[in-house]
Write a structure and sequence with these properties.
The structure is a homotetramer. By secondary structure, chain A is mostly helical. Chain A folds into two domains: about 45 residues, Arc Repressor Mutant, subunit A (Orthogonal Bundle), CATH 1.10.10.60; about 140 residues, Tetracycline Repressor, domain 2. Chain A is built from ten helices and no strands. In chain A, helix 1 crosses helix 2, helix 1 crosses helix 4 and helix 2 packs across helix 3. The first copy, chain A, is elongated and about 65 Å long. The model of chain A has no long low-confidence stretch (mean pLDDT about 90). Chains in contact: A-B, C-D. At the A-B interface, helix 1, helix 6, helix 7, helix 9 and helix 10 of A face helix 1, helix 6, helix 7, helix 9 and helix 10 of B. Chain A binds a DNA duplex through helix 2 and helix 3.
DNA sequence: TATGAATGAGACTTCATTCAT
DNA sequence: AATGAATGAAGTCTCATTCAT
């Protein structure tokens, strides 16, 4: 195992603590306690508090990218691919609520940091969407005038906002599956060639 | 003048400072300096740092709601209304970049706060979208199976994410007008009754 | 009237506020509000917060000295005089509870101040006791070996501590009259010439 | 060692600083400097500034109670016990002047706090006096009509006030031993059964 | 005289980070 | 590698005092 067991324990603890309190209100000692290590131990694995957040983000989103890519590459139909991406992203909220909260929060974190940190993992993630769209356009399934660079943002934003709602009010909101279905339908209708219908 | 001049000066300064540094990295003394008042003066107008953020949000989004409602109520066609809402929201980013940054950041602020603070102004804002959709459905323009409560989130999320991109990389990205046009087209196509076309 | 009406209003307000919150926790604005004047007005009558405390003390204890002296000088018997002094001091607690609290607190205030401020009014007050004792010794009523300078402290301390108890727990404690009677009896027995009995 | 070395160091430093400046004028950094620790270290041992005062009080008065009880329980004669209590209390002033100052100050501290904080240690301390008196009454040495609950306050107040005088003007006042002797004599004469004499 | 908005120095407290063990 | 006690910088907020009106 390249990455120590404790490294992952700390990441997991940080996910929970950041999700509960937010990055700035989270204390290193909270993370340490939840990870079952001493405060100082954290600094053997991470440079500083912000480094935990960045590492967490890169590693966890890396895993998510692998998962969703594996699911998508089995498919042929770009429409189906998009449905899978959307369902997968929203499914993450149910399966790993705290992680979803942190990833979401992080993207909007203090802009000073975001500007400094070129978030390549996140770009890789949403570029899955634009790749799907491009493929659909090549296949003549999606309308050619849609700009994949804009559409990917629109689609990601839409599902992320639905996720945010669900995170804040898990009970009072629409069922996640239904949300995924609705969002998929809207975007598919919005992207498809009229002639295709 | 109901609200003192200094109240607004502090809000304006806070918008700039929060946008630049983020809420947690912003210091009260930064805001005070930029507002041209003493640190203590801020506490004559706001209870605490977080109260500045909340007040800022409520007051500024209140103005935005008024503006966009005024524009929309002149229109008859729900499709046009949606275009206006989208264009208006994205236009805000160009006209008032710092404000847009803060409002965006704020929505994802430390979830602990967000859970406590029922963000009624924000809900009022996105309910403009669902009202438009409902109207379109009544008029037979938009598809009846679309759930306005989900679609409003999707649409808001899409434009907000596009705004975020533009805020972070104003230069390298698509033109705002083009973005608005693309997003409008996707959603209109996604919402419209096939028969209408 | 030599001393303005507002001067007394501020003193009265300060008595209440100091009694309720203590000197350090009391705010000038509290006193101003209770006195029905503006914060700044207080500084037309007093140099600073501590000056209010000193003035309050000197003026109010001055009145108390006058009152008790007037009562005592009607008497011939030093034993009766002592009883009157004790009853009068404890009676103050019932009649003017807040004032009693402040005077008491003040005597033990931050020693830095107490050392700087020679509390002549207070000395004048307890010297009434030593004068009574001396008179009693001259008349052969009180034992000559008692040192008036020590006895005055002991007597004042005893009644002040009883007052303190009553201030803190007005309900659960002995009746004030009974306390006065008991304390008088103890000290009279302690001071009188055995032969006198 | 149950309580860390630093805990006691901070208490000792606080005694000195509170005695010199008073509780409210004392700064945490003063205490830290005098204790030879960092400011933050204080908060590893105490919750807040006021907690230092309370802890100091409880712990130090606890020790004093133990000492005086040990001395008293060797005696049979209640008169002698009272003398010992008085001498011991006044002796404390000479041996531990700063501590005496703080304990005294504390009893009259901002009444808001005193009302909240049921000062059980102090009550335990002065209940030593009432226990002595009750014992003397049972033995027929002290007069039965004296109420121990009042007398304990009177005696404590008397010696505390003498202590206060000595703390403020150590030079110009009576010798502590003489004061103790005088106060003892007054109270013994005041308490004893006439027939006993 | 009177006001009360404004000032700004200063204190308590927190907590990321270090380092001796 | 691991600990966790200790550090000390830094920020929010308070409030006595001032001064233009």
């Amino acid at each position: 195992m390249r990455i120590s067991d404790k490294h992952q324990k700390i990441i997991d603890a940080a996910v929970n603590v950041f999700a509960e309190k937010g990055f700035f209100n989270a204390r290193i000692s909270d993370i340490a306690r939840q990870a079952g290590v001493a405060d100082g131990t954290i600094y053997l694995y991470f440079n500083n508090k912000y480094d935990i957040l960045i590492s967490l983000f890169e590693e966890e989103i890396g895993k998510i990218i692998l998962e969703v890519k594996k699911l998508i590459e089995k498919e042929e139909d770009p429409r189906r691919m998009l449905e899978i991406f959307i369902a997968q992203h929203l499914g993450l909220v149910r399966r790993r609520k705290s992680l979803a909260e942190v990833l979401q929060m992080e993207l909007r974190q203090s802009n000073k940091f975001m500007r400094e940190y070129r978030n390549t993992k996140f770009i890789e993630y949403i570029d899955i969407i634009s790749a799907i769209i491009r493929k659909g356009q090549e296949m003549g399934v999606f309308r050619p005038e849609v700009k994949p660079g804009i559409a990917k943002r629109a689609i990601f934003g839409a599902i992320d906002e639905c996720a945010r709602l669900w995170i804040l009010n898990p009970d009072t909101t629409y069922d996640i599956n239904e949300t995924a279905a609705q969002v998929s339908r809207i975007f598919l209708a919005g992207l498809e060639q009229p002639s295709v219908q």
